[in-house]
Design goal:
Strand content: 15-25%
Helix content: 40-55%
Radius of gyration: 28 Å
Order of helices and strands: HHHEEEHEHE
Shape: elongated
Structural class: alpha/beta
Length: 152
């Protein structure tokens, strides 16, 4: 009895049919990896600027009056360096703020009322990136969900 085995020619055709399928699988893998959102991981990364701003803003016991939800639409924090004054000047919705501690307590009060309020950090051109990021990290460390940085 003579048995027939598959010839070498049919084996190569099977291998050539698998190659496009493997290519498609790798293309899908690359597509899903590049379109995946890593935003949640970014929030979990530690920040030295955030730790520094928390230590500066940690000693306040005075809480500002609690705003109502109708007062909270979006918050703009402007940072500038006035001429003649050595330090930075902060404005929270056009209200002058004396220090980062007071800014932190205001942010906490607003975020307690509405945690999803958009907070916009608007530094002048003369402000260093470190000072602007300190305010950004201060807002994030107080529980803000949406903090945006204005760039010119």
């Amino acid at each position: 009895m003579k048995t027939r085995f598959a010839s070498q020619g049919s084996r190569t055709s099977l291998d050539s049919m698998m190659t496009p399928m493997i290519d498609v699988v790798f293309l899908l893998l690359v597509f899903f990896l590049t379109t995946a959102s890593f935003q949640r991981l970014e929030k979990l990364l530690p920040s030295a600027v955030s730790a520094e701003s928390e230590s500066q803003a940690g000693g306040t016991s005075e809480e500002p009056p609690k705003p109502s939800e109708s007062d909270v639409s979006d918050c703009v924090i402007k940072i500038n360096r006035p001429e003649g004054i050595g330090g930075l000047q902060y404005r929270f919705n056009d209200t002058p703020i004396a220090s980062l501690q007071e800014l932190s307590s205001r942010l906490r009060a607003v975020i307690r009322v509405r945690p999803d309020v958009p907070i916009v950090v608007d530094p002048e051109d003369s402000i260093s990136a470190g000072d602007a990021l300190r305010v950004y990290d201060l807002a994030k460390s107080n529980g803000a969900l949406a903090v945006y940085m204005v760039a010119r």
